[in-house]
Design goal:
Blueprint (H helix, E strand, L loop, with lengths): L19 H17 L3 H40 L4 E4 L2 E4 L4 H25 L16 H14 L1 H27 L8 E5 L4 E5 L2 E2 L2 E2 H25 L5 E5 L13 E5 L22
Helix pairs in contact: 1-2, 1-6, 2-3, 2-6, 3-5, 3-6, 4-5, 5-6
């Protein structure tokens, strides 16, 4: 490159710590990493392992945002009647998004499954004696692995079991049906409401839930699990500091991190504890 040649910066993604996903699953995790792993070699190994979760999780997150936008734009076009034509007694909808929605849904389920298995099989290897791979096993092997974990850390075992019941089984079941059973997302359906004199749209459902709600539940469950599990495991290695939760109203728009570090001498700070709560849907926004 010559001295006066221009230097180009190319923006690849329009996201940052103003997004809960990036602030909570990247920024604070890396702050803990830098504090606890002083050597570059150890930090690089941490990054290599954490990326087994983060990269496919990021793909699933971005696909979900694209899917939400695709659905919302379609609804707006239908409301404006730009896609609706009437001839004699026939009402036609002149555009379908079924193929795009199916493609994105399949991608989200696949990437979420890869992210989850990458995390439980790889990340736990950073902690002596901890094995989480049983979470992806069938019930008999899962229960055996859970009892082994309970003998080591009963709090962690209870937390893992709640996640298994609320979202992990559903992810595993739906992904397996897609890959091995030929399942595919149903099409959008339409009907005419004579009483209201209007066309009505019925989005596809998965397990009785509107498909965006189902996928949002899966992703928010996965992201909350990884955030809380990672913070918990790393925080057990802190000596003079604690992790505390920032109240929602005190989180800055430019940095929506959920956790922060304080000192054990700060009596006004309550150390965060690993207790299962409902998945945080803001992680998919």
């Amino acid at each position: 490159m010559e001295k006066n040649d221009p230097f180009f910066l190319i923006k690849t993604e329009n996201y940052g710590t103003g997004s809960p996903f990036f602030a909570r699953l990247l920024l604070f995790i890396l702050q803990l990493r830098d504090l606890l792993l002083p050597s570059e070699e150890a930090r690089l190994e941490f990054d290599r392992i954490y990326d087994r979760f983060f990269e496919p999780a990021k793909s699933a997150y971005l696909s979900f945002r694209s899917l939400v936008n695709t659905h919302n734009e379609y609804v707006e076009e239908l409301i404006s009647s730009h896609l609706i034509s009437v001839q004699n007694n026939t009402i036609s909808v002149d555009k379908t998004i079924d193929s795009d929605v199916r493609r994105l849904t399949n991608s989200i389920l696949s990437e979420a499954d890869i992210a989850f298995k990458g995390y439980i099989n790889e990340f736990s290897t950073l902690f002596d004696g901890l094995h989480l791979g049983f979470m992806a096993q069938k019930e008999k092997d899962y229960q055996k692995g859970l009892e082994n974990l309970r003998a080591m850390d009963s709090l962690l075992a209870d937390y893992v079991d709640e996640n298994r019941k609320t979202w992990e089984r559903r992810l595993n079941k739906t992904r397996n049906e897609m890959v091995h059973g030929g399942w595919q997302l149903p099409q959008y359906q339409f009907g005419f409401n004579k009483e209201a004199d209007r066309l009505e749209m019925y989005p596809p459902q998965i397990e009785g839930m509107m498909y965006l709600d189902f996928l949002g539940t899966i992703l928010s469950g996965l992201f909350t699990f990884v955030e809380e599990m990672t913070v918990y495991l790393l925080s057990t290695q802190l000596r003079f500091q604690i992790v505390y939760q920032i109240p929602i109203e005190n989180r800055k728009k430019e940095n929506l991190a959920r956790f922060a570090l304080g000192y054990i001498t700060d009596q006004y700070l309550d150390p965060w504890e690993l207790i299962y709560t409902r998945p945080d849907y803001s992680l998919t926004e």
